[in-house]
């Protein structure tokens, strides 16, 4: 299965989308349970609760008795209603991370009420195309103080399609931003997997799109997702990597099997470094990540770290590569932008 495939189907009875490139699963989105907390991207009206000394933030009362935590506190007072957006997933039992810098995302554009200015994606390099899109942006946002970003997918769309996306997002933003008083309420839900796939995987354009309840089964995607429920990852070259989340951190262990030579250690570690961002993304894992690489000479650490930095550079999730610990582990901090797959699928029969 060569090329870029987007599959829009179901997994274990839930709406799901998968991105497969040259036969390898690159990303997967699965709808959460109906009673799950609002996902990243959801916009809510909340009520400020109490400020937390020492943590530099304030708790926010959300719909259905949920709690959120907001670090932006300047000019805020307890009891006031406030518009917030979910910015990440919370660990079980903790408050949802929130932000007041709302983003209204579409397939071709993003409206930014708190960040004025008209911007064109840097991935669009053709100067004539940039100038043309700039004119569309100015026409679509005339009379508004809101900001706008045109995404790279806008470069090859018809003018009417781009203008319609801008108008739809601007109208939504204006309605929501004007609805800032009242009791806690969900105003804009996070997109479901099929919508999010069309929005975020449109560029570059897929070579094939598979749709329907049997789309996953036809392309073997069910089996690919099932493998994510096992901690062991088979790496290129026959090495293995074990990825195990705990309450405190995500532990990653790289193994070379019976071959304990320095050369095998370096090759296995490079293979693990290249695949680690994909595995964390697919498994929905974030927070503190500690990697126990296979034994290798200290002089080879630079080569492994170079591979890590190159691999994580392409990731959308905010990631900080902290570096080597005195005991030879490698520490990474990754934003929790999704629910862990094991938690997401908990209680659903295969």
TrEMBL record:
Its cofactor is Mg(2+). The keyword Cell inner membrane does not apply. The keyword Disulfide bond does not apply. Coiled coil: none annotated. Keywords: Endonuclease, Hydrolase, Magnesium, Metal-binding, Nuclease, RNA-binding. Residues 105-204, 214-336 form the RNA-binding protein AU-1/Ribonuclease E/G domain. It comes from the Bacteria. This is Ribonuclease E/G. The lineage of its organism: Bacteria, Pseudomonadati, Pseudomonadota, Alphaproteobacteria, Rhodobacterales.
